[in-house]
Leucine-rich repeat-containing N-terminal plant-type domain-containing protein (Tagetes erecta), 981 residues
Amino acid sequence: MKTSFLVICTFFSFFQRFGLSIITSSSNVTCIKSERQSLLVFKNALTRTNNRLSTWTGIECCEWHGVECDRNGHVVKLDLRTRGSLETIKFKWLTGEFSPSLQNLKHLRYLDVSMNGFTSNIPKFLGSFERLEYLNLSGSSLGGVVPHHLGNLSRLQYLDLTIQILPLEHAFDKEPILDDMRWVSSLTSLRHLDLTGMNIGEHVDWFNPVNMLSSLLTLNLGASNINIPSIKYVNFTSLNTLGLSSNSINSNVPMWLSNLTALTHLDLSFTDLRGQIPDYIGTFNALSFLDLSVNHFENSIPDVLCNLSNLVHLDLSVNKLSGPIPSMLGLILKLEDLSLQFNKLSGNISTSLGQLSNLKQLDLSGNSFAGVLSEAHFAKVKKLNYLDLSRTSLVLNITSQWTDPFQLQTFYASSCNVVQRFPYWLQTQTKLQRLDISNSSIIDTIPDWFENISSNILELDLSKNQIGGKMPRFHVDSSKHINGRILNMNSNKFEGSLATFPSNVRWLDFSNNLLSGHVPPTNKTMNPILEYVVLSENRFSGNIPIHFFKVPSIRVLDLSYNLFSGHLPQMDGTMNSSLNYVILSRNDLAGSLVRLCNVSTIRVLDLSHNKFVGRIPRCLGNLINLEIIDLTNNTITGVVPSPLGHLYRLTTLHLHNNTLEGDIPSSLQNLTRLVTMDLGNNLFTGTIPLWIGEKLSKLSFLNLQSNKLTGNIPVQLCQLNALQYLSLANNNITGKIPPCFGNLSGMITHQDDSGYDVYNYEENILAFVKGKQLLYTTTIMFLTISLDLSSNNIVGEIPDALMNLVGLMSLNLSRNLLKGYIPMNIGDLTQLESLDLSMNKLSGRIPQSLTSLTFLSFLNLSFNNLSGAIPVGNQLQTLDDASVYEGNDGLCGPPVSKSCKGNETTYNDVDGDDGRDETKGFWFYAGMGPGFVVAFMGFLGSLHFIKRWRVAYFKMVDNVYTWLSVSMLLNLALQRRNVFK
Ligand SMILES: *[C@@H]1O[C@H](CO)[C@@H](O)[C@H](O)[C@H]1NC(C)=O
Ligand SMILES: *[C@@H]1O[C@H](CO)[C@@H](O)[C@H](O)[C@H]1NC(C)=O
Ligand SMILES: *[C@@H]1O[C@H](CO)[C@@H](O)[C@H](O)[C@H]1NC(C)=O
């Protein structure tokens, strides 16, 4: 919002500043016929006008909408810009061909066709409008190579070719290209040049052409993939506005910037700048807007910044700045907006802050500040409406008797030092709309006065405290908050039943409390945009609240870990549903599954740990959006119906612990995206299908244990390069262990997080949102790498090649008919925590290398024919239970009682190797708090808005359901991007 404000300002003041010829429409002139005809041809070439050009009839074209003429009846101005927000633009814009007929308007001085859906390329004839002073093609969807003929426009003062993120796909496909910028140097009158979002590229020389334009006032090159040369002489020293955001400059601030002393507006955000913030910026006396956010600036904030007496907006957030806030901060009297979040700043906050009588927004979050913020810090700060102290150690010491306080609309103090009591001064804040005091060690109940302020609150996050007592009644009159509130009360100690369901909610999370009783009904009128309902981990009981299924806006419904009973609701196929996530696990639900078959929007369906009965309905194959299905632990019977093979988006299939029978249906080979396939603990018969290895190449987790499978292990399984967990245990499998198992590369290395993959990122945000969903989306990341073939009739020897699987953490080959030796190099499996070879016919000595398995905490070699001395040393020393070796009559030495003849005992001291990787994936992503946030911000920063990422990024934003802090972050990031103006 702030940015668009600035843009509008620039726009209006443009005419004053540049003395652009004043164009007055004279109502008394008669339009020139040939120009009128050109306009009509232009209109007729459009495919959609959305009724915008309805006045374009009759002969008086000078009075048509968007058209202005000079005294002689020549069209001099054409303004066809579509106005409005990005979301609404597609309902209003002009689409279709940009007709060449316009080239007849030889007298044009002003042409604005921005924000439209033209399908043509940028026409060359634009270069023939000799009189043109103003040209705005931003977001016009005109593509192709930007014609060099534009260089003929020697009177041009204003040129805007900004790329906008437009709603049509084609806007991306034919993004304009700037292959050469030399023509820019002949635009000798140019004052304003905006190429934001244009992919200029590192190899095009933009600087020298632009450097010829000594009277340039505005230069915006944000997100245009340029490089910044270090040059000797800068010509455009009158520049007021410089925007270089979202380019990878990746150096210190270039020296030539120091000559731009007339700057009022400087945006260097998201540019990978490093080093210190240069002192000379403190000499830019006219500067009112300074954005250095999301860079790598370090050391302290220079004191000289406090000399910038005209500064209104200062953003230094997401850098590595350290030390205290300058004590003279109070000198920047015009300051309205100060953002310092996510740095390494420390110390107390100077009371000079209290002098900033214009301050409206203050963000200190994510720093190491400590000490107390008292009323003195806000002595004159009466206009403050936004205060973020999250993730600092600041204590806000304000009494509830504070007279004449600021009136905050937003107060964020998550993970901050609010100790024990609910902050009572909040009752002075009657305008509060956003409040986050989550994770702040509050052990209290909600005070009575809270209901007075809570009715205004749009976003409320009290999660992760120890707030007890009854849940407040979130009641508002239904005309308020039409966009829906966010209520996040999870992980507290709220108890009792809910009297009513809060109204006008979009996002509600009451999970992990002590709530009980029935869930009160809600309906569309009370909650027209309810999207997200999470009531898991409480003690709710009674029939499953089927009314939620019938709220058409609902996307996420999580009622898991409660005491709900009854049947699923009968879903009507004609219902307009948005349900994506249906998570009902760990309740007492019964009946058949057939009732969900019509809700084709479901992406995640978790019905595990309930009492569902009957067969898997064939119609489940209609839910083609399913990505995850979990029916673990129910009483589902019969064969797996073949239509399940239609669910081609499925990545996770859990059917564990039911009474399914028959063959594993061959239609499942179509599920080529499967990562997790869990069919364990059922009654499946037949052999292990060959297509599992041939077709399901993404499988990482395959569990077929405890079925009635027969036959050999197919060598095709060795093709599963991603496999990290394989269990065939407890079947009737015969034959040998295929030596090619040694090639299962997923078990050889830890799978690293594969860098910043956007789609993974989406999943991980989901994971971050709700720890539990981690189970659904990122199983792979924290899986134990494991191979279990136990309790079968497998014969032959343990192939030496298995010792290649150096990533293995668990190996279980027990209860088979294996003979031969334990491979000598078993010590290569350095990650092994659990090794079970018991109840086979293994013979020979226990290899000495076993002592190098420093992580081994479970070992069973019992009931084989092993002999000789038990190796001694390292971790084996701690596994001193004789039962480990029981039933091997030939073994001797401790811990078995039989002692060895002579000196058979050998010590082998292998140094404890601490070089084990953390299982990085999981902790990297789930490592919540500032680390995550910074990583996430960094990720946004590194997009640089190159096209490929941009598309994917928007997909991501669209898919992730709004979550308080995630959306905050995104807003923050979006606000920063001038691409979004
Ligand atoms: C407009 O034209 C009419 C005659 O065509 C004339 O009487 C009138 O004064 C003109 N008005 C202006 C503002 O030029
Ligand atoms: C500075 O601009 C002038 C024209 O305004 C030009 O002649 C001169 O070459 C420019 N200097 C550089 C270093 O580009
Ligand atoms: C900056 O200005 C100084 C003094 O006017 C001049 O000597 C220097 O060459 C200029 N530097 C650049 C990079 O233009």
Observations:
- The two ends are 8 Å apart (CA to CA).
- Confidence is low (pLDDT under 50) at residues 1-19, 168-172, 751-782, 905-981.
